[in-house]
């Protein structure tokens, strides 16, 4: 059921998170560190993407105990992930009172054809995308926030850049199309024409567009903000580094002041080791998370 | 200069900016005290109050905003209201204490408890209704005797002012109704 009021509240919360950093955390202690560093929200996980990648196996929704323990210690919004298409996990997360659900390719997909019908939920959803068609399909299903996927747990920004550039350049192209060209464009995108019209009118996605997957340094955060992200998700980048507290603060600073390079230079000093990164070419095709989602 | 500053450290500053632009006012996204000083009024947007407080201190805007309020009007919505309040009850968020109200953060609950409902607005002699968008909203639980209530949701005061300070627990910037922003613009005489 589409409900304009519900959608306003969902997108409204996404608006409140703009200009901030959303951090992956696995324990209440980490959640506190994130909140103290100035995170606008935390993503409560059992394992961060880098560990999911290393350990393999089926990655599922987190244990509710983990989520509840984190909800108890922070006052900022708590997000959690469900598997693509696993609407029952989403129902459980809604019952737990999480503030945002990430229908995420980081977990093992539960449905190879359909994503969750997000209109059915009162809690807002964020979904990943690699291109504009994927973004608009997720919005058509009721997503209130889009994040470009990047390659989670890789510590490598190249995929995040690719996805953000792909989305942004396609948006630019649509703004100069004639109205008569939009139906054909929608057909090519595999997305509803109403949303394509809206993109043309707004010159941006109709919901906030955040960036995720591979952000490990303050400069990475600035890069994504300059490319058009409105907020960044940092997953493994913080708690897989040698000094999470310092790095978390530095990434928050760099996100807020993404054009203040003196400040970013200063924030980048002496952060210790960043997470060890992966060359995307070394990740076997079937282990790439970004390709999950349809 | 007659530009209205929008504190742009984090939150829905763009929405406030769009609203003021719609009313024909010049706006400036404020991230430094130099920028603050070039403005005739300031809006502190919705966002996360813990984050906003930390960032304001880090950017050396905490005391400058306090000094700014002695001469020029400030409007805070949601998290902005918390930052301006005297005290956030039962929470460790530090506040500027520029308006004598006590508030409870996330008073209505989590995001699933966020709601939209009609608010009664009384600006001067005009009484009207307004679309109240409440997102993880704070609640004003006590008002000092010199604070003037301006809007109600049921029995709760959801908008108030005292001198240069105007606060709202809801988000007028997320609606298409410009009344509240017009009221603030009048306060700064632009």
Give unreliable regions of chain A as ranges: none
Total of domains of chain B: 1
CATH topology of chain B: Rossmann fold
What radius of gyration of chain B results from the CA coordinates? 15 Å
Strand order of the largest sheet of chain A: 7-6-5-4-3-2-1-8
Structure annotation, total helices of chain A: 13
**Biggest β-sheet description of chain A:** 8 strands, parallel
Based on the coordinates given, report the CATH architecture of chain B: 3-Layer(aba) Sandwich
Number of distinct beta strands of chain A = 8
Order of helices and strands of chain A: HEHEHHEHEEHEHHHEHEHHH
First-residue to last-residue Cα separation of chain A: 22 Å
User: Pairing-aware structural class of the strands and helices of chain A?
Assistant: alpha/beta
Largest interface: A-B, 33 and 36 residues
**Total number of β-strand segments of chain B?**
12
Mean of residue pLDDT values of chain B:
95
Could you estimate the helical fraction of the residues of chain A in percent? 40-55%
Summarize the amount of helix of chain B as a percent range. 25-40%
- Characterize the quaternary organization of these chains: heterodimer
